[in-house]
Design a protein that fits this description.
The complex is a heterodimer of chains A (255) and B (393).
Chain A (H helix, E strand, L loop, with lengths): L2 H8 L3 E7 L8 H10 L4 E5 L10 H13 L3 H7 L11 E4 L2 H7 L1 H11 L3 E3 L5 H14 L3 E2 L1 E3 L5 H10 L4 E4 L13 H11 L7 E4 L5 H8 L4 E4 L1 H10 L4 H9 L2
Helix pairs in contact in A: 5-6
Chain B lengths: L9 E2 L2 E2 L8 H16 L1 H15 L5 E3 L1 H7 L2 E6 L9 H14 L4 E6 L3 H13 L2 E7 H6 L1 H9 L3 E5 L6 H14 L4 E3 L10 H9 L1 H14 L6 E5 L4 H7 L9 E9 L10 H4 L1 E5 L2 E5 L24 H9 L2 E7 H15 L5 H7 L12 E6 L7 H8 L2
Parallel strand pairs in B: 4-14, 5-6, 5-8, 6-7, 9-10, 9-14, 10-13
Antiparallel strand pairs in B: 1-2, 3-4, 11-12
Helix pairs in contact in B: 2-4, 4-5, 4-9, 5-7, 9-11, 10-11, 14-15
The chains are: A alpha/beta (255), B alpha/beta (393).
Chain lengths: 255, 393
């Protein structure tokens, strides 16, 4: 079993944190990972910065631009992560857009991921059909799990299709939005969370987009297996830097 | 070989729909319906009537006598500059607004660079009484004040794109984000043959009226439907797609695509995608695009805002890769000279985009009896300030 699957089999309400590699400073990547693990985070998503992040709101876009300006590259990220498994044991996912992966070479990218101990990938603009036709074998060969997204607009038929193509978890986008744009969950989201729960899918679900405090974390995890925080964490980093990490995580977990 | 889109949405290896799941329902709805809707008799009737009575089609195919004499070949100009709003862009926005209405959409969004597509979209939204929001880079808003005013007069809301480089590609990103945030009632009118399938094909079909008309007009004038060459400038490539469309599978017709070399192909300030681009993903499509070795999309440059795009549509990427199309790059200076020359020889002030297509005659030689059709995609009124500056008029 992959670390993601093990974690999900043991933990029913996991907290996952997204951060952009190379932000706030170029060499912060490993220290952020270590601190997140120490603070009790269960899983991390390392954002590979991209110049044109379509599915992201201003917070993640700005952090990506900053990271690129700092000099972050795909090569450098793998160098930084070379020895990370000596000190970090929680599941690690790389989240990014498909073009940088394509330029690196999908096979080469997957090989490097396996070498440094990455467990899965989230590539929002790599569609299901393309993945299955061209890349699923490569992912499998390197022990990588590919995570697919669903949204409130995704039809049940397609959710079932995605469920059968998934092997880690399903990333539930909380609302029709880009990252970082929701303030609180209303009945619309709660109905959506319940509707998905009632489908009894094979894969666990983890909610992302719009989770920014303990309240939204609780709401998001009531009917699911966990939640992902990205923009709110990056906002905190931009203000307090790395020394704000444990306090931030405590504030999410306080209840 | 077939140079049109295949069932999976690809032109050769280019195209597809590389979109986040958030956009899947919108794009899928369009994909499932566009061909059927376009084939409806009532759709075709309304589309054709508006092109005739509102846009002013057919646009003339004009034999440019003095230009032909100078370059010792037979040059015809397809006068898209005479379309309502001053460019071919409106062929597509008329088509897409009718599509949006039939899909029950009430809110229209669009991206714009120089503002031409924004104006064409605002125009059809006014015509149909639909809400219109146009995203435009903050820098472009400052550079293109008259077009911003036009859009506002037409009732559109112009939203500045303040992310990234604050130009066309960022305006496109912002428009896509808006669509993600408004997945049910909104239609995105993409302005070129770019974006996820079915957009490149749908836009090409709406623009194909250009080559449809060239065929019958040339038949009248020359007794044959096929020219020896058809020439068009390519940014994203919508006017070129329209001009090439009915000739794609006619090998006897040479296809010439003209890209903007800016200050020189290798100057670092260029938009010559076929020369500088590599295969990658931009705005939902696998195509040729200008990018760093690390896969970050780079900022293009051209004096012409309409050619200032870091990619080309997948149809054109395939025309290039397959060798079906001949690709030529033209610098800012060459284009400006060609624009001024058309003014002096034919009394037509062309858009700087179109001037790039006209500029090839200086270097690309044709036979005396070759029939060369140049798509004059837009008029130059919008570019007066650039012409004034360039020539100290």
């Amino acid at each position: 079993m992959n670390r993601i699957q093990i974690e999900l089999s043991e933990n029913k309400k996991l907290l996952s944190i997204y951060f952009t590699a190379g932000y706030p400073k170029l060499d912060d990547t490993v220290e952020i990972l270590q601190q997140l693990e120490k603070s009790g985070v269960n899983m991390v998503e390392i954002g590979l910065p991209f110049s044109d992040p379509l599915a992201d709101g201003p917070t993640i876009q700005e952090s990506s631009q900053e990271a690129l300006k700092n000099g972050m590259t795909t090569d450098l990220l793998f160098q930084q992560l070379k020895d990370v498994r000596a000190t970090v044991s929680i599941p690690m996912i790389i989240m990014g857009y498909f073009n940088p992966v394509l330029q690196f070479g999908v096979e080469n990218f997957c090989k490097k991921c396996a070498e440094v101990g990455i467990d899965g990938l989230i590539l929002p603009d790599l569609p299901l059909a393309e993945f299955e036709e061209h890349y699923s074998e490569i992912f499998k060969k390197h022990g990588l799990i590919n995570i697919f997204l669903i949204t409130p607009q995704t039809s049940e038929e397609r959710i079932r299709q995605i469920d059968s193509a998934s092997e880690g978890f399903i990333y539930m986008v909380s609302s029709a939005s880009v990252t970082g744009s929701s303030d609180g969950f209303g009945t619309v989201q709660e109905n959506y969370f319940e509707r998905i729960a009632s489908l009894s899918l094979t894969n666990p679900q983890i909610v992302g987009f719009g989770i920014n405090n303990s309240e939204t974390f609780l709401q998001a995890t009531k009917n699911t297996n966990g939640a992902i925080i990205g923009s709110a964490f990056i906002k905190m980093l931009s203000v307090k830097g790395l020394c704000g990490i444990s306090e931030f995580i405590d504030s999410i977990r306080k209840v | 070989m077939n140079y049109n889109v295949n069932k999976k949405g690809y032109y050769g290896e280019f195209g597809g729909a590389y979109i986040p799941e958030m956009l899947y329902p919108n794009v899928e709805e369009l994909r499932q319906n566009y061909l059927e809707v376009m084939a409806e008799e009532s759709f075709q009737k309304e589309f054709r009537e508006l092109l005739k009575d509102y846009v002013g089609r057919p646009t003339p195919l004009y034999f440019a006598k003095r230009l032909s004499e100078k370059y010792k070949t037979k040059i015809y100009l397809k006068r898209e500059d005479l379309c309502h709003t001053g460019a071919h862009k409106i062929n597509n926005t008329i088509g897409q607004i009718l599509m949006a209405k039939r899909l029950g959409k009430t809110r229209i969004i669009a991206e714009t660079g120089a503002g031409q597509h924004g104006v064409a979209t605002a125009t059809v939204c006014a015509l149909m009484g639909l809400e219109c929001i146009v995203f435009m880079g903050e820098i472009d808003i400052k550079r293109q004040a008259p077009n911003v005013a036009r859009m506002k007069m037409l009732g559109a809301k112009v939203v500045p794109a303040i992310s990234g480089s604050k130009t066309l590609k960022d305006a496109t990103n912002e428009t896509i984000r808006d669509w993600i945030n408004n997945p049910v009632d909104t239609h995105y009118i993409i302005g070129s043959v770019v974006g996820p399938h079915p957009y490149p094909d749908m836009v090409a079909r709406f623009q194909s009226v250009v080559s449809e008309e060239i065929k019958s007009q040339l038949n009248e004038k020359e007794g044959r439907e096929n020219p020896d060459f058809v020439v068009a400038c390519v940014g994203g490539g919508s006017n070129a797609a329209g001009a090439f469309y009915h000739y794609l599978d006619k090998p006897e017709v040479g296809i010439i695509a003209v890209e903007a070399a800016g200050k020189g192909i290798y100057s670092g300030e260029s938009a010559a995608t076929s020369a500088l681009g590599k295969v990658g993903i931009i705005h939902g499509s696998k195509t040729l695009l200008m990018q760093t070795a690390d896969g970050q999309i780079t900022e293009p440059y051209s004096i012409s805002a309409g050619l200032d795009y870091p990619g080309v549509g997948p149809m054109h990427a395939n025309l290039f890769a397959s060798g079906r199309g001949e690709f030529i790059s033209i610098t800012d200076d060459e284009a400006m000279q060609a624009g001024l020359e058309l003014c002096k020889l034919e009394g037509i002030i062309p858009a700087i985009e179109s001037s790039h297509a006209l500029a090839i005659f200086e270097t690309r030689k044709f036979k005396k009896d070759d029939v060369v059709v140049v798509n004059l995609s837009g008029r130059g009124d919008k570019d007066l300030e650039t012409y004034i500056k360039h020539f100290n008029l």
